[in-house]
Design goal:
- The complex is a heterodimer of chains A (308) and B (253).
- Chain A is an alpha/beta fold and 308 residues long.
- Chain A folds into two domains: 219 residues, Rossmann fold, CATH 3.40.50; 81 residues, Alpha-Beta Plaits (2-Layer Sandwich), CATH 3.30.70.
- Chain A has ten helices and 14 strands.
- In chain A, strand 1 and strand 2 form a beta hairpin.
- In chain A, helix 3 packs parallel to helix 5.
- Chain A is elongated and about 80 Å long.
- In chain A, 37% of the residues are buried.
- Chain B has one domain.
- Chain B contains ten helices and no strands.
- The chains are: A alpha/beta (308), B mainly alpha (253).
- Chain B: Belongs to the ABC-2 integral membrane protein family.
- Chain B: It comes from Aliikangiella coralliicola.
- Chain B: It holds the Pfam family ABC2_membrane.
């Protein structure tokens, strides 16, 4: 299937000489939730800005649903909705007026019924006549989403959608984004909350220093890069790891009360049985054990660290 | 052509005017009326006619032009500066809308407001001074042409300005002095010969002269030259705007 967004050899060099994007090649599949992760200044917002028309790329090609964003910008942009990172709103406008304005701006005729539907979906209908400046941060964020959805886009960019949003609202937004995806929209989100990507994304892309360093199915990524750890809660604390076991990936923590064994979950021989046997031979007993898999956050931190 | 977008911007800008009627309409009408009271009704009655026109009536075209220029620039510059300042410009930049449509929306609204204001000032002037309009078609033509041209100029200032001081500096430090020295309150034939020559470098002279001609049939410079100079300034502004959108100057990174 043709990707809904196709980026080829995209570069962006600012007038200061700073290279924000370095030969980006990326396809976004139709109907997926794609999470773009990266540390501050990695190029996430520049990449989104380039696709949406806010940033002039230095060179490269971007297609949105088959339309070139430079030469066929009308067709390309009408497919795209953007929720920017900053809460930028017209302070003196009412909620309904600002959402209606957005729909007109994107070339759609007025449709009060559709605007009402969006506002109700986002629990904004009761606030429709409120001035933007009277809304809380969370409510403003919802209005930004309503504005982005007002012209019925197929592609929705969410740049740090839950920054500064309380836990409850964050959960609501996750549900809403999943609902949008279920209705056929393609969602591209950037986030600092790895938990958010882990919770929602179908695929993950990692960008660092303007380069895409990884694009992978989330499940595949966690499967491939996720290490497992076995934690043994010892009966009695030990001072050090016995000499014969020092070649194993073991680590003593909590003043010698816990022993952590890191192993490759994909390997046929995890070495757990051998470890337990050797511990027993050295008189190291344990009262409990549990195993955990690396979180996406660990994977992300490791990837970025490796590149640095 | 994205007519819905033009309409959306136009309506949005006009709605802002309606929210700030006192500042947008009432205030300039009141301050211009004070000129009519002071220079027209009070001092004007003690001054002689100029080119066969009473002084009170003589200054009306210049005062309307003064308000028209400053309000056109102010409306258009603020209209585009504020979205830049608040960050909401992202929406215009990411919308399927060409720069021609952006300009039609913002400049169209700014010019509309100025034209309404100019007409309101003319109506108000009637309460204080008697005047006639010999060429009403040309009067409206000059009004529209000047409002559009200086709204285009204001749009450029709004793009250029990156703070509120810059937004005000050209209207206050350049346009207002040029208007006062452009024959709003006198005929340039009253100046010493050397100043008559120098004042021809002031573009506002041509606007006021042409506009006054449409009222009383008398002008400091030929009316064709007035129209020509206004058109030249309009073309310069359009060229500037074309360049801004082509390069993304202070709009797109």
């Amino acid at each position: 299937m043709q990707p809904i967004i196709s980026i080829k050899n995209l570069n962006k060099v600012y007038s200061s000489g700073f290279k924000a994007l370095n030969n980006i090649n990326l396809d976004i599949n139709r109907g997926e939730i794609f999470a773009l992760l990266g540390p501050n200044g990695a190029g996430k917002t520049t990449l989104i800005g380039s696709i949406c028309g806010i940033v002039n790329p230095t060179d490269g090609e971007i297609l949105a649903d088959g339309h070139n964003i430079s030469t066929d910008f009308r067709k390309a942009r009408e497919k795209i909705g953007l929720v920017p990172q900053e809460l930028t709103t017209e302070a003196f406008e009412s909620v309904k007026a600002t959402v209606t304005f957005s729909r007109g701006l994107f070339g759609k005729p007025a449709d009060p019924a559709y605007i009402e539907k969006i506002l109700r979906q986002l629990s904004l209908w009761d606030k429709r006549d409120s001035k933007m400046m009277a809304l809380s941060g969370g409510m403003k964020r919802r209005v930004m989403i309503a504005k982005a959805l007002s012209h019925e886009p197929q592609i929705l960019f969410l740049d740090e959608p839950t920054a500064g949003v309380d836990v409850e609202l964050r959960r609501d937004m996750w549900d809403m984004v999943r609902g949008l995806r279920d209705n056929g929209a393609t969602i591209i989100l950037t986030t600092h909350y790895i938990e958010e990507a882990e919770e929602m994304a179908d695929r993950i892309g990692v960008i660092n220093k303007g380069e895409i360093i990884l694009v992978e199915e989330k499940s595949e990524l966690m499967h491939k890069l996720g290490k497992r750890q076995l934690t043994l809660h010892l009966q009695c604390p030990v001072q050090s790891i016995p000499e014969e076991l020092k070649h194993l990936p073991l680590e003593l923590i909590d003043d010698g009360n816990e022993l952590i064994y890191t192993f490759d979950a994909q390997s046929e021989h995890t070495g757990i049985a051998e470890l337990l046997k050797q511990l027993s031979q050295h008189g190291i007993d344990f009262k409990d054990l549990n195993s955990t898999q690396n979180s996406l956050e660990d994977i992300f931190v490791n990837l970025v660290k490796e590149q640095s | 052509m994205n007519f819905y977008a033009i309409k959306a911007i136009y309506k949005f800008e006009m709605a802002r005017t309606m929210r700030t009627l006192m500042q947008s309409i009432a205030s300039p009408v009141l301050s211009t009326s004070l000129y009519f009271v002071v220079f027209g009704a009070a001092i004007g009655s003690r001054m002689g006619d100029i080119d066969g026109v009473s002084y009170g009536a003589f200054i009306i075209p210049g005062l309307v032009m003064l308000a028209l220029l400053s309000e056109s620039i102010s409306n258009a510059s603020f209209g585009i500066f504020f979205p830049k300042f608040s960050g909401t410009i992202y929406e215009v930049l990411s919308a399927p809308i060409s720069y021609v449509e952006v300009v039609l929306g913002y400049v169209g609204a700014a010019a509309s407001k100025s034209i309404v204001l100019g007409l309101l000032i003319l109506i108000t002037a009637r309460f204080f001074v008697d005047y006639e309009i010999v060429h009403p078609f040309w009067m409206v033509g000059f009004l529209v042409l000047t409002a559009v041209t200086f709204s285009l100029f204001g749009f450029i200032i709004g793009i250029w300005a990156d703070n509120f001081q810059k937004l005000q500096v050209i209207p206050l430090m350049v346009v207002t002095p040029l208007t006062f020295l452009g024959g709003s309150f006198y005929s340039i034939s009253m100046l010493p010969p050397i100043w008559q020559k120098i004042t021809l470098f002031n573009p506002v002279v041509y606007l006021i002269s042409g506009f006054r001609w449409s009222f009383y049939g008398v002008a400091d410079v030929d009316v064709g030259v007035s129209v020509g100079m206004t058109l030249v300034f309009m073309i310069l502004c359009l060229t500037g705007i074309w360049w801004i959108f082509k390069t993304g100057y202070r709009l797109r990174q």
